[in-house]
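Example S7 (structure tokens).
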């Protein structure tokens, strides 16, 4: 509980004690009024101040105005106890709501703790110096000691350690890291001292991107939140004018047309009760709180959703489309066979590694890793990378073509098919076929379970799109239980396929695309919801996506959908409950059946119940 909440709690306690004491004393007349005004002003001075400020600023109709009019009116009519009680219980409800919002913000604030305060670099004297992470340039060697946060993305150049990644991924198990491995900012170094060569500036590092996503998530409102904001804008003036009509019209009708006593005090009291009941706090507070709690609960599980509008859309998911490499497979390619035609296998692998040495594609890295020797790039010239086909380069003056069968067809070279399942890199030297290299990619441990979980969550159609060859694509799809697979696609083909699937589905059904590579960015943007793999995913994919999975676990896709559905279910529960209770109580208030105590329940009681229901969205661990 923060200082402001403690201060409000102290005012509530003092006012409540004073009210109890005053109720027990035999008071009457102006003495009773004067004494009851003490707890009233203690508990309600800030509400009165806000109401006056709203009137001055011509923003009259809000909950502060409703409470001020209702309580002041009750006191003027001589109902001192009810007037003070309404203000007291309203403040109790506000305190409860403030505490609930604070609780839902806790997961977000815990995530914000990943922001590093400094980076350690060695000065000229060999001593460690703490500098602002923003000042560290790419390629700088930084030192991270045990217990410190990794401030900037980089590669470990010296030392071994264990990393705590729970703040980023929601994963409680630490992971080991050694020299040569990539390390992302926001992790906590648990054991050894490590030296890291930075590969990004702080502003482009993982931690900065995550913080930016989280900080901006609340600014993207859902349709439900927008509706409630408009509803409150028109609802509050409407009930104020209705209350005024209730206070004035019936007495005038009784007096002018029925020749009866107008009973002004009775009808004014009904109008004041009507005002208290009509306060839209339960809806205005609980609905944004439900979304905020849902976003906070998801982030704690390593699922970053960029806004409540995406949370709402995600709940309607019926189609899920996957990329293959790095999404459903580990993206860790290994050479599993070298099938030579005219060359020695080691020489064929050498030509392939040299031709691919300028590429950052996982297949290129696997060829270089299998070659295992240092690569002299001076031996390589005239490199042409043909998207979706492969690479053509000159190695030691020999034209080397390394790629898929499309590249061979493009060059008019006859090639030999490979009967093993995997990615095949065909090789040609000076337009003569030289053999092929088989590269295999392992499935992610949870990939099959992820597809089953999606179907269990109500996803009606799963599709895989890949640039890989048909045999590999069909093998992976059958292993995972994916309904449809489309292979040998260029990035533009993937966009066209997603657009075709969007055209086939019903309007209320939403399509999710899950990808990780830079070539997935256009598709992520085109889908109703784009989900990117955050740990290994490219910056472009994360930027284009609406949801980011921080630990690259495809099982979290189903969890994100279940979180969104729970959140939306809670939102609608609160809408139906709050509006239903208020309509009933408003009718009872207008008929004179409901008194001020029922009005307090209809306002504060409903708000407390709705807020309690809203914070259920925080608890997503076992979904």
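Recovered sequence:
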């Amino acid at each position: 509980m923060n200082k402001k909440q403690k201060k409000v709690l102290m005012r509530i306690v003092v006012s409540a004690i004073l009210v109890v004491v005053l109720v027990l004393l035999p008071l009457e007349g102006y003495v009773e009024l004067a004494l009851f005004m003490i707890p009233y002003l203690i508990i309600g001075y800030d509400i009165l101040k806000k109401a006056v400020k709203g009137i001055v600023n011509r923003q009259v109709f809000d909950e502060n105005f409703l409470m001020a009019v209702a309580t002041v009116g009750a006191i003027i009519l001589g109902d001192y106890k009810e007037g003070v009680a309404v203000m007291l219980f309203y403040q109790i409800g506000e305190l409860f709501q403030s505490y609930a919002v604070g609780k839902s913000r806790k997961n977000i604030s815990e995530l914000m703790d990943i922001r590093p305060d400094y980076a350690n670099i060695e000065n000229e004297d060999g001593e460690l110096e703490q500098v602002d992470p923003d000042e560290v340039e790419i390629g700088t060697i930084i030192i991270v000691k045990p217990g410190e946060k990794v401030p900037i993305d980089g590669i470990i150049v010296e030392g071994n350690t264990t990393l705590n990644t729970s703040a980023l991924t929601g994963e409680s198990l630490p992971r080991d890291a050694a020299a040569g491995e990539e390390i992302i900012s926001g992790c906590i170094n648990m054991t050894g001292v490590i030296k890291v060569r930075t590969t990004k500036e702080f502003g482009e590092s993982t931690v900065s991107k995550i913080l930016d996503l989280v900080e901006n998530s609340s600014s993207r409102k859902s349709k439900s939140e927008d509706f409630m904001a408009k509803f409150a804008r028109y609802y509050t003036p409407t009930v104020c004018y209705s209350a005024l009509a209730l206070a004035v019209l019936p007495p005038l009708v009784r007096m002018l047309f029925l020749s009866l006593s107008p009973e002004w005090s009775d009808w004014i009291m009904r109008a004041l009760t009507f005002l208290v009941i009509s306060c839209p706090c339960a809806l205005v507070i609980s609905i944004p709180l439900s979304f905020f709690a849902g976003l906070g609960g998801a982030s704690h599980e390593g699922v970053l959703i960029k806004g409540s509008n995406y949370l709402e859309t995600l709940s309607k998911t019926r189609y899920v489309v996957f990329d293959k490499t790095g999404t459903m497979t580990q993206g860790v390619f290994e050479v599993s066979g070298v099938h030579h035609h005219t060359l020695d296998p080691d020489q064929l692998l050498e030509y392939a590694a040299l031709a691919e040495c300028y590429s950052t594609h996982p297949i290129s890295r696997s060829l270089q890793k299998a070659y295992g020797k240092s690569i002299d790039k001076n031996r390589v010239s005239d490199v042409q990378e043909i998207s979706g086909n492969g690479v053509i380069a000159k190695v030691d003056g020999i034209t080397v073509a390394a790629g898929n069968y499309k590249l061979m067809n493009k060059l008019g070279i006859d090639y030999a098919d490979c009967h093993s399942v995997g990615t095949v890199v065909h090789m040609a030297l000076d337009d003569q076929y030289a053999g092929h290299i088989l590269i295999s990619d392992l499935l992610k441990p949870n990939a099959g379970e992820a597809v089953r979980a999606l179907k269990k969550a109500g996803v009606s159609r799963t599709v895989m799109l890949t640039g890989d060859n048909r045999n590999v694509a069909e093998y992976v799809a059958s292993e995972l239980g994916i309904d449809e697979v489309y292979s040998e696609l260029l990035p533009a083909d993937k966009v066209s396929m997603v657009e075709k699937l969007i055209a086939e589905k019903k309007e209320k059904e939403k399509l999710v695309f899950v990808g990780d590579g830079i070539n997935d960015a256009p598709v992520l943007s085109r889908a109703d919801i784009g989900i990117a793999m955050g740990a290994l995913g490219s910056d472009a994919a994360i930027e284009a996506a609406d949801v980011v999975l921080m630990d690259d676990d495809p099982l979290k896709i189903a969890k994100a959908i279940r979180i969104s559905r729970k959140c939306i279910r809670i939102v609608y529960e609160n809408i139906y409950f709050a509006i239903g209770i208020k309509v009933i109580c408003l009718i009872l208030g207008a008929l004179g059946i409901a008194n001020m105590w029922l009005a307090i329940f209809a306002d504060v009681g409903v708000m407390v119940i709705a807020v309690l229901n809203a914070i259920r969205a925080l608890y997503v661990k076992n979904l």
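Notes on this example. The first helix runs from residue 3 to 24.
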